[in-house]
Amino acid sequence: MLKLLLLEDDISLIDGLTYSLKKSGFDVDVARTIKEAEKRIAKSSDFDILLFDVTLPDGNGFTLCEKLRESGNQVPIIFLTASDEETSVIRGLDCGGDDYITKPFRLGELCSRIRALLRRSNRKNEEGNILRSGELIVNLAEGKVFLGDKLAEFTGAEYRLLCLLLQNSGRVLTRGMILDKLWDGAGNFVDDNTLSVYIRRLREKLEKNPSRPEHLKTVRGFGYQWEE
What we know:
Helices cover 43% and strands 24% of the residues. With 228 residues, it is an alpha/beta fold. It folds into two domains: 2-129, 3-Layer(aba) Sandwich (Rossmann fold); 134-226, Winged helix-like DNA-binding domain superfamily/Winged helix DNA-binding domain (Arc Repressor Mutant, subunit A). The protein is elongated, with a radius of gyration of 19 Å. 25% of the residues are buried. Keywords: DNA-binding, Phosphoprotein, Plasmid, Transcription, Transcription regulation.
């Protein structure tokens, strides 16, 4: 049974979510404050997924997410937010969240989001040094990219960008997140205009129709997303 931590202070929502999630096969633990959540996470390292409300009595879910990521905790996190404003969504993604769902939401949709996120997370853990998406295969150990049985050529920056997108398949990456990750530590970095060029080049090499990409999608107002 998959173990889930729900961080939420709305009692009526807690009751409904707990009932539905347990019916869907999850072992649900509940925390109503940041402090309670921190204690439960510190006590148990076997949570499969975390559901965080944003506004809580003693802080917000974004701050807790940042602390967990800084400590090396990579358990998938979904934010339950009352706001779908661009700034709120970007904050959630920038601080390390994997997905968000806006209140009010359908419980069936939430369960589907949870399962999709867990599938992506498990697939990455199982494959280790191999990233796959259809006919596209990236061998991280050898630094090689294959399209079908053919070796594809990429520059260093293109390769890093491709790996970043595949490792976060299904997740929206803001331009700021991508620019931060592409910094190589040697003083070489990618600016906003150059990123647009790299995105175009990847589409030209990977998409059947670069002007209407099926995989490397632009999410207006946010950034980019790789869809399998």
